[in-house]
Design a protein that fits this description.
The chain is mostly beta strands. 0% of the residues lie in helices and 62% in strands. The two termini are 30 Å apart.
Length: 341
Amino acid sequence: MKNHEVTTSHKLLDEKGLLIEPGWAKSLVWKYDRNDIKMPKFRIKEWDYYAILSKDFGVAFTMSDDGYIGLQSASFLDFIVPCEHTETILDFFPMGKLKMPSDSSEGSCIYHKKGRLDMTFTLSPGKRHIKCDFKKFDGNKDLYVDITLEQPPMDTMVIATPWKENPKCFYYNQKINCMRASGTVVYGGKKYEFNPETDFGTLDWGRGVWTYDNTWFWGSGNGVVEGKPFGFNIGYGFSDRTSASENMIFYDGKAHKLDDVEFHIPASGYTDPWKITSSDGRFEMDFVPIIDRSAKIDAKVIITDQHQVFGKMSGKAVLDDGTVLEIKDLLCFNEQVHNKY
């Protein structure tokens, strides 16, 4: 069944390591336990990714344990210049040593590399706290971040889907949009501040086992529309999406499910204007890029070609009851990523 909503809580995997009930949900109804996975430990991927954006600047952070490699990274984005800088630390064969929490609503993510990086993602009631102290982040420039994200009760996007070519591979993912952001960023001695009235953060929380070669498309953004928090999550391209898509609008804390979307990326380049269309006509957008945060690595076994493009979206979003929201210059990102790893 296309777009099968899962509403009852149960284990994610059965005794054979297969997804019990593929589909989508508005919360983490599936219970993840890495001990239930029937694949080699070096194939397990666990990550937390945060993106926090203001109209003039943004930051993003990744903490990940991808089995035979871990990637811990931070990005600073300047939308005025525009420019960006990303720094990544690679760890070989972490295979569970980071002890990433099995649920997004509990536990802490902690990373320490002496003399270089201290990064923590911690929880308190209704809040997420991000701290990052990155020495020599950009040449001799350090990056220091202390951010709080507010997370009152709200719907989220959750999806659990397998791969046809290997049903023991699965994608279990939660996107939490519309978290109001406050706090500071100090980069190269200059201080930046987030305003919770206008600025928001997104969490991409993922656990799973993937096949080797995948391409995906993902977009996310937040803002204030007609006085209420608005956000969206759109994505497609990898794993078997027969049972569910991850396309969703969030408005005033409630989720509105979309069908399929498509990114129309111009052949002339990622920084030229895009269009985003939907099969149900409920998400029709023009996207004007500002920064292409691109990365390309070819290490033979590990190959990645990433284009995470930040910019502004304008168009219309239609809620479940038919209400049409006019979207104007919403700061967001859309990406195309091809990975072999």
